[in-house]
Amino acid sequence: MSYPADKRRLPSKLLGLSTKFVLFISLVIIALCSGLSLYFIRQQSNAMRQALVETGLILVKNLAHNSRYGLIAKDLVLLDQLINGVMDIDESVYVVFTGPDGTRLTAKSKLNVYPERTIAESLIRSSATEVTITPFTVDHSQHRNRLYDFAITIYRKNEQNSPVFSFESEEAPDEVQQSATRQPLIYGTVQVGLSEEKMNQALNAMIGNVILITLTVILVGIVATVLLIRHITTPLKTLVASAQRIAAGDLSVSVESTTRDEVGQLTLVFGQMTDALRERDAQVKQAYRELEKLNQSLEQRVRQRTSELQAANEKLKELDRLKSTFVSVVSHELRTPMTSIKGYIENLLDGLAGALTEKQAHSLERVKHNIDRLTRMINELLDLSKIEAGRLELHLAPIDIVDLVEDVVENYQATARQKSLLVRVILSSPLPPVRADADKLHRVLINLIHNAIKFTPEGGEIRIEVTVRADDFVEVSVSDTGLGIPSNELGKIFDTFYRSQSAPVEARGAGLGLTIAKNLVELHGGVMWVESTVGKGSRFSFTVPVAQLFSQELDSES
Question: How far apart are CA 544 and CA 539, in angstroms?
């Protein structure tokens, strides 16, 4: 079986799946290793700098402790020996002793670099007891070198057990006691300068090793990633090639699973799918062969069935025409004897054939009522047959809708009073004349008001409202407080021969009045609708165009 070429082509492959995986994992490895390396280097740098600061603190405090008596005695030899001991340390750059008056007693520097005198002067003025650390930068051998100056004030403490009192002063005991309570006596300051150069050399060597290790780890990780991704994507590439061959119509493709992981399971499922496609292809070919056989006789059978349907349709049209003709003829023929019967009954009720007893008069009234009902049904059948046949003609003319409504309401006032019904007419002012067939519109109003009186219990209210709409139509509404119509019947209330199941049996008609009324309204160019709530009543409304609108349409047609 051959498959048509699919117009949808695969997008051009800018980056394959394996390349994306390798790039992503490589970026993760590079970012992780670089981040860890930078963190390690920063930690080591901070540790080395902290060690340098601690070394400077130890050196300057030891010098301050050991040089106190040398400063008291102005023993420069002792001070030089102490300086030489400190200068043997690789990080040491200079050592400076300053007297209490700010004069530099002795100093030594490896780089011919000395601190500013203001550092010692400020220490003497402030009588600070803690070590002051001052970093600064100097240019040496065409490169900048960062130094740390560690300075501390050497003073005599006010301790009673200090040997300084017996060596340093010949004051009287009472003077010694007084001096003990005064400000501590300053012997001078000592400053030690340490350089970061050796620390930077060690740090640079460590950074080189860290970079080498980081690059090695990144390279090994990328190689391992490439091998792993290739192991994963090779079976996928095989599946893609096989899928392309299947898409081209080659169902002889077979793939075998070489691994037991998810990719292997995918390969196994792909093979099962290929086998299912082969079976489906065989079934489709068989179905095509059967369809070809059926198509050979299908056109002939369709033509035969079409001719049969056409004959049946013509027969149904003929039956429908005969039905309409029969209904029209029968209704027309029934109208004459019904009129004669009604006339005889009215003569009997008028006493032309002699006096009647009360019971006879009541029976004749019931007969007359049913004759009127039967006559109304016959007229409705005749009107319906004319509407369905398209033979109902409208004699349109401008009419006063107010006069028409008041005339119909006046005819039903007596019937409404018998049931104690309040009939209210609400008219908006002014009301323009409407273009309608007065007789047909009279029939519509009679049907709606008659139904409202029939389905409204005693003591209820009927409202007839006439208003002008913004679309050049007049809207007429007939509302009642009767039983109401269930929501499931609202869509069928205008159907032919439909009678509401919720209405009392004695109030049900032939189911033609609302159908005829709706058709008459639509022939006038209007619409009819109903709104109802069970237990509260119903509201039937329809629209007819104003006379001005019709005259404009006639002018445009002419």
Answer: 17
Asked whether the beta carbons of 466 and 402 are under 8 A apart, the reply is yes
Sheet arrangement for strand 422-427: 422-427, 461-468, 473-480, 537-545, 528-533
What token pair was written down for 354? 């002699």
Helix 513-523 with 438-455: angle, nearest 10 deg:
150
Contacts 24+ apart (CB under 8 A), 417-420: 419/453, 419/456, 419/457, 419/458, 419/460, 420/458, 420/459
How far is 213 from 207, CA to CA, in rounded Å? Answer: 10
Q: Is the peptide bond between 430 and the residue preceding it cis, with omega within 30 degrees of 0?
A: yes
| C-alpha to C-alpha distance for 102 and 123, rounded to whole angstroms | 10
Alpha-carbon dihedral sign for residues 343, 344, 347, 349:
negative
Predicted TM-score (pTM) of the model is 0.41
Tokens 């002939």 belong to 300
- On the CB side of 499, how many CA atoms lie within 13 Å of its CA? 10
Question: Is the separation of the CB atoms in 469 and 533 below 8 Å?
Answer: no
What is the DSSP pairing of strand 422-427 with strand 461-468?
parallel
Residues 524-548: pLDDT tens digits? Answer: 899 999 999 888 999 999 999 998 7
Provide the pLDDT for residue 175: 44
pLDDT for the residue numbered 511? 64
- Determine if residue 459 is left, alpha or beta; phi over 0 gives left, psi from -120 to 50 gives alpha, anything else beta: left
Any idea what DSSP says for residue 487?
G
Q: What are phi and psi of 350, to 5 degrees?
A: -80, -5
Distance CA 97, CA 188 (A): 7
pLDDT at 319: 64
347's enclosing H/E stretch is helix 262-349
- What Rg, from alpha-carbon coordinates, does the chain have? 60
Tens-digit pLDDT profile for residues 421-453: 999 999 887 889 999 999 889 989 998 998 899
